[in-house]
Amino acid sequence: MRYIIGTATVFLGPTIGRIGPHILDWPEQVTQNVQYGIIYLILIGLIFYDKRNKKEYQPYILILTIWVIHQITFNLIF
Questions:
Q1: Between 20 and 30 A from 60 (CA), which of 5, 16, 36, 46?
Q2: Could you tell me if 32 and 74 are in contact, meaning their C-beta atoms sit under 8 angstroms apart?
Q3: What residue ranges do the domains of the chain occupy?
């Protein structure tokens, strides 16, 4: 279930990617980094929630690591 929740974070990109530039007039790079920030907050919140309830939280750490690599790659390319 935790991997499915982590996979659902992919759907935040298109949503924020359309709201940022079109409604809020943000540049593409700012919009992308805001997306990463929101995803990080969600995943960190889920990690703390599962740690507090003594549940398995390692899938969220893996997904967070992949998102960090994705952000670094995006910022190096653009």
A1: 16
A2: yes
A3: 2-77
